[in-house]
Each structure stands twice: as structure tokens, then as C-alpha cells.
Design a protein that fits this description.
Largest sheet: 6 strands, antiparallel
Number of strands: 19
Number of helices: 27
Structural class: alpha+beta
Length: 701
């Protein structure tokens, strides 16, 4: 893991720190373990973890005016210096407009500004500490700092309504540690904090100005090309030196066995449009993407393209064939990684502790098996679906903008998928109902559904779209939660609707799409930690700020067309000079992923039943062990249960066990007890005065 951490103190505390330095319980100097100090007291900032030298840049105008950029940023030092002077006046958006994926921290006197990203892949967290505010790009160091216990209400919301920002709010699994929403910045002034948005929000009063589809797609192409070029122009890094040969193993096998990536640049090549677009862009830009000076004329001359072939589950034959056709490009070196039952989801549940729980924990071993054959800098297509595809709720946005005729093509596609002539009328009625439903009413409807445990939803392709045509819906794991946990989330939603000025300030489709993007980005962040390969960096250009902005500029009428993502990426490649694409480009293939999850669940059923013999989730009062074990047996036997919900339950149980089994802390200057969740997990008994959430839960259960 890599993160940055610092704090902003009050004036009185700053005077104490300036004379004696920050101290812990034993009088030792307080600083993060394994840290590198970027600047010192009274408002220090550290970089923690295995950062590369070029991933940390600090530009100073004077002793009280400086900017730190951590990550891959395409701005030059002169651009950073100009931006630093502009930031003195409070401007924020330009700090997030450079290509790449990074976190910017600006200090102007006692004012500190920390900018998060638009997608949520690089979040910012904060917590009150020592009369001021501590902040970090990871939640666990702050939880260690303040000895935070678990926030059970947040854990319940993660299971009951993970895609609803009003349920999850700005909380984290650690009580007292808060998250800055995507598209916002944390501003600290002598310990006092403020959350400010830097991105304009579309008005609900009038429709957005009409966007030209061609210029919008050109903007996506330019942003993607610049994102890829920024990574290609960054300094190349060589993994740790290979300690020597192993009998019977070649260099590639030796590196994989020792968990070392291949030097140079590579990309996933699954046969889908997103990863293929990045691989072809990286291979087609001028220069040899993988060449490393001083490592032989044949080393890394071609971009390494990695394809995963699942031998345990069939259904990806067409994708593999397309990947092979794409890999015929002479600038690509194709490697096929095979995996059997040992890399199915749920097969290997051992792994490191991550900052937060995420569904990707159950597939970490599967992804690690693929990434071990990847490069030191590896492109992945994660996020393309969320930034390019149309969320079904966008049909309501079209109705709000009086663009009814553009509903014909997506509704007709759903009717063909389900083979029913009733689909168009049902979808149109649901979209019309959502367009006329206020945000507050949508949250109240979800609160009522959770309270009365109504989780039945229509099936089929049209059924999934109908279920998504709402402001908020229960999560797939909600059906297995206890009544107390569901009631607590229901109360949480009711409190959100009671706040003055409630509302997202967006249309329902745009609002749901942003929430889905934030969850996908958070899942990728945890996957990077769970499947981390030493000396390897994963690059997801579709989650870069500038790419997200370019994709948001695409008109709704273009998004809702069936196959829009593949057509947009085809146009992007054509604009970059890539025209020879194999037949079937962009064909959807969700079924093999579901089949792999069901097969992995069946194979690992016994170990999952042991995991939920005495689960910590039951000790916390969130689930009943027998209910979850029954669901695992049913899913393994082939019952039509939501597999995503079981993945949520298993990943959260795994994360809790790893958290409680850890030793030590992220900080020096504190005793061993100064770490997150010192009290462990205990069954909660709602308590509190009348009118409090706890009292409301007691009345509802």
C-alpha cells in the first residue's frame, strides 16, 4: 500500500509542536512507520509506502507556499509552479485537470488543500485529532491514530445499499474517520476543515445544452491518448534484480514464481473493447512502449499483452479468438495465462489486509494469477463500462429533456432480449415514473422497502433495467441482513431525507451513474491492494479526471444506443489510426463471469460454510449465521440467488477477520494498543435518548 498522511493543527497546538514536536503516549516523536517526510511542522506531510522517485514531486515557491503531487501526473514543474500561484486565490479545478492519476496537496501559509479525484479511485479521508484535523489517502492510518472502533452502521449500509450515497454517506468502516466525496477537496485552515466541490453540477431547471456527438467522441479520444502517452513518457522502472536461475525454469517462469513483473509496459488483452483499446493505443503511439535501456536489444521491444484463459469455465472462446486476432499486431507480444479451479473466485481466500472491504477480495487470487505475468507498468480497462455506458436510469433523463424518440432503440433491444412485446410499455412507464419522482421520495421508498424486507425484483434483461429505474434500490446482500441492521439503515435514509436542502442536484440517471462509478473505483483501489505485485503499477486511464470529464460530455442520446461503448471506442481507435479490428468487436460477455462465480462458489462451498460457522458479522448483529450458510448451500446447488450479495458478505467477513488478526500499528510513538478497533467486535445493543437513531431502531425492530 501507498498513501500520504498529514495533519493541520490549531494555532495553540502548532506552537506546542513547533517547540517540542508531536509526541505519542510514551513521549516519542509521532510519525508514520516507513514514511518519507515531504515537509515538516507545524502542518507536516508524509509519503508512506513504496513510492517510486518520479511519483513524488514537491515544488516550492517560498517556505510557506508549496505543492506536492503524488502519483503519475503529466504536468511539468513549471505548470505546477504556475498552478501553485493560482491556488493562492482559492482556485481548485485546475489542480485536477492534468493528465494522469495523482493526488495534489497545496499549502499556502496555514491553509492546506487536498484534492480528491472525480471517480473515487484516489479518495481523501480525514478525522478530528489533537484539536485539529488529520488527513490521509487511506482510512486505516487515521483509524490507528485515533484508535477508532468499527462503524457498524456503515457496515450495515455497505451490505444493505452499497450503491446509495445517502445510505453510505461520508462514513468509513472506522467510526470517526470520514471520506471526502469524489469531485471534492478537503480545505484545512489552522485545524478547521471545509469540504468544497470543484466540479460544476448540471442544473435541474433547464436541459443541458445540446452536445455535438462527433466533437464529444473526439474529446474522449484526445483524453485517452493523452492519458496513455503520459504513462508511456514516464520513466521506466525495472523490478528487483532476479537473484539467479532455477533449474527447469526460464526467465519468465522464474519471475512469475517469485512474484516479479516483467520489465517494461504491458496491458490486459481480454478480447473486450476497453482493454483492447488501451493495448492498441499504447502499442500504436510513437516509440517502443516496452524498450528498456541497458537491458538488451530484444527486451521489452513490444508491448506485453496478457490474456487470461479460464480452463475451469467455458464461454469465453469468442473473446479468446478476438484477443488472438488483436495480438497478431507485430507491436504486441502475446502471453496467455491459464487458470483452473485453483484460481476460481473463492478458491484462495488468504490475502493481505486492505484499507477497506470490497467485493474484489473474493477474486484477488484470480487477478493476481493474471497480473504476475504482467509488466512493471500494466494497463487495465477497468472503469470503461461505468464512464461510457448508459445507466438504465438515464432513460428518465431523456424524458425530462423531452427526447422520447431516443428511447426507441434501447427499449427495442430489451424487447428482443426478453422476447416480449410488453417490455416497451413497462420500461417507458418505469422511466416516466422515475422522471416524475423527487429524490426525497426515492429515498423514502427505499427506506420502506428495507424496513419491510421487500427484495423481490423482476428477472431477465428487462427486469434488471426496470429494477434500476429508481433513485435507490436495495443491495444484493440486503435480503440476508437481520431486521435490526435493515432498520438501522432505514433510519439512516430517513435522516438523510430530513436534512434541509436534500437532493443530489442532478438528474436521476446521471446521479446513479456517478454512484456506480464511485463504487467501481473503490473496488479497484482495494483490488490493487489485495492482488498487489511488488514493483508493479496498475494503470486505469478510464478513471483519470480528464477522461472522466470527456466521457461525461458525451450526449445522452449517444450513450443509450445499444453497443454504444464499442462504437465509441472503435471511433477512438480509428481517430488514432487503428482500423483493422476483428469481427465481433465489442460483443458483451457477462455470462462467463457469472458462471465462474457460481462454479467457484460450488467448489469452495465447504470452506465458506466453515467461514460462516461462527462469523464476526453475526457477532456484530448484521446477519444470522444459519441464514448465510443456507444461502451458500442454495447457491452452490444452483438456486437463483444474487451471487453479488454473497460476494459482499464473504468479502466483509474476510476483511473483519484480517483486521482483528493484525498486529502493530501504522504509527511510531504509540504503544501496541494504539491501533484501529482495539475493542474488537461485540454484539450491539441500540441505546440512546428518544429521537436518536438507536431509539428509532428499537421502536422499528
Amino acid at each position: 500500500m501507498r498513501w500520504l498522511v498529514g495533519w493541520s493543527s490549531t494555532a495553540a497546538r502548532a506552537a506546542e509542536i513547533g517547540s517540542a514536536g508531536a509526541t505519542g503516549y510514551d513521549g516519542e516523536t509521532l510519525h508514520p512507520v516507513g514514511s518519507h517526510l515531504l515537509w515538516g511542522d507545524p502542518d507536516p506531510l508524509w509519503a508512506v509506502g513504496d513510492w517510486r522517485p518520479d511519483e513524488i514531486r514537491v515544488v516550492t515557491a517560498d517556505p510557506e507556499t508549496r505543492i506536492a503531487v503524488l502519483g503519475l501526473c503529466g504536468a511539468s514543474d513549471e505548470q505546477l509552479r504556475v498552478a501553485l500561484f493560482a491556488a493562492r486565490g482559492g482556485a481548485l479545478r485546475h489542480l485536477t485537470a492534468w493528465p494522469g492519476s495523482y493526488t495534489a496537496v497545496v499549502q499556502v501559509g496555514r491553509r492546506i488543500t487536498v484534492c480528491g479525484d472525480l471517480a473515487g479511485a484516489r479518495p481523501v479521508f480525514y478525522t478530528p485529532w489533537a484539536g485539529g484535523t488529520a488527513y490521509a489517502t487511506a482510512a486505516l492510518p487515521l483509524a490507528d491514530l485515533v484508535e477508532a472502533n468499527l462503524d457498524f452502521a456503515h457496515l450495515a449500509a455497505l451490505l444493505a445499499a452499497p450503491d446509495v450515497p445517502a445510505a453510505v454517506q461520508d462514513s468509513t468502516p472506522y467510526a470517526g474517520v470520514r471520506r471526502v466525496p469524489p469531485g471534492h477537496a478537503l480545505i484545512l485552515r489552522a485545524g478547521a476543515r471545509e469540504i468544497a466541490g470543484y466540479e460544476p453540477v448540471a442544473s435541474l431547471a433547464v436541459a443541458a445544452p445540446p452536445a455535438d456527438p462527433e466533437s464529444a467522441v473526439d474529446g474522449v479520444r484526445d483524453a485517452l491518448v493523452e492519458a496513455v502517452r503520459t504513462r508511456l513518457s514516464a520513466p521506466r522502472h525495472v523490478p528487483d534484480i532476479d537473484p539467479g536461475p532455477v533449474p527447469g525454469m526460464g526467465p519468465a517462469e522464474r519471475r512469475a514464481a517469485r512474484g516479479m513483473p516483467v520489465p517494461g509496459i504491458g496491458a490486459d488483452l481480454s478480447g473486450g473493447p476497453a482493454s483492447a483499446t488501451l493495448a492498441l493505443l499504447a502499442a500504436g503511439l510513437p516509440g517502443n512502449p516496452g524498450t528498456l535501456l541497458g537491458h538488451g536489444t530484444g527486451a521489452g521491444e513490444r508491448l506485453l499483452a496478457v490474456t487470461f484463459n479460464d480452463l475451469a469455465v467455458a464461454g469465453r472462446e469468442a473473446e479468446l479468438e478476438r484477443a488472438g486476432a488483436l495480438a497478431a499486431n507485430p507491436r504486441l507480444h502475446h502471453v496467455v495465462v491459464t487458470g483452473g479451479e485453483d484460481v476460481l473466485p473463492y478458491a484462495d481466500l488468504d490475502g493481505p489486509l486492505t484499507d477497506e472491504p470490497a467485493p474484489s477480495l473474493v477474486t484477488a487470487a484470480r487477478n493476481r494469477a493474471r497480473l504476475m505475468s504482467g509488466s512493471a507498468d500494466h494497463f487495465i480497462g477497468t472503469g470503461a463500462r461505468q464512464v461510457l455506458d448508459a445507466h438504465p436510469a438515464r432513460l428518465a433523463d431523456l424524458l425530462m429533456d423531452r427526447k422520447r424518440r431516443h428511447l426507441v432503440r434501447p427499449v427495442a433491444a430489451l424487447a428482443r432480449a426478453d422476447g416480449s412485446v410488453l417490455v416497451p410499455a413497462r420500461v417507458y412507464a418505469a422511466a416516466r415514473r422515475l422522471a416524475r419522482t423527487p429524490y426525497r421520495a426515492g429515498l423514502e421508498g427505499l427506506a420502506e422497502r428495507l424496513l419491510h424486507q421487500r427484495f423481490d425484483e423482476p428477472g431477465g434483461a428487462s427486469g434488471a433495467s426496470l429494477a434500476a429505474l429508481t433513485w435507490a434500490r436495495p443491495g444484493p446482500a440486503a435480503r440476508w441482513l437481520t431486521g435490526e441492521a435493515l432498520a438501522e439503515v432505514s433510519v439512516r435514509l430517513q435522516h438523510a431525507t430530513a436534512r434541509s436542502g436534500v437532493g443530489p442536484g442532478q438528474r436521476p440517471g446521471d446521479y446513479r451513474a456517478r454512484a456506480a462509478l464511485a463504487r467501481a473505483a473503490a473496488d479497484l483501489r482495494i483490488l490493487e491492494q489485495a492482488a498487489e505485485i511488488r514493483s508493479q503499477r496498475l494503470h486505469a486511464p478510464f478513471l483519470d479526471n480528464q477522461v472522466v470529464r470527456a466521457c461525461r460530455a458525451l450526449p445522452e442520446t449517444l450513450r443509450v444506443r445499444p453497443g454504444a461503448r464499442a462504437e465509441i471506442l472503435r471511433t477512438v481507435l480509428q481517430g488514432a489510426g487503428v482500423t483493422d479490428l476483428p469481427p465481433g468487436w465489442g460483443a458483451p460477455s457477462h455470462a462467463p463471469s457469472a458462471a465462474a462465480a457460481r462454479t467457484g462458489l460450488r467448489v469452495a462451498a465447504d470452506s465458506l460454510l466453515d467461514l460462516f460457522d461462527t462469523p464476526l458479522l453475526a457477532e456484530a448483529g448484521l446477519v444470522e449465521a444459519r441464514v448465510v450458510r443456507k444461502a451458500v448451500r442454495g447457491a452452490a446447488a444452483g438456486e437463483p440467488l444474487p451471487l453479488d450479495g454473497l460476494a459482499d458478505l464473504v468479502s466483509l467477513e474476510l476483511w473483519l477477520r484480517r483486521l482483528l488478526a493484525r498486529r502493530g500499528t501504522c504509527w511510531t510513538g504509540t504503544p501496541a494498543r494504539a491501533r484501529a478497533v482495539p475493542a474488537g467486535v461485540s454484539r450491539r445493543v441500540p441505546a440512546g435518548p428518544a429521537g436518536s437513531p438507536g431509539a428509532a431502531v428499537r421502536r422499528l425492530v
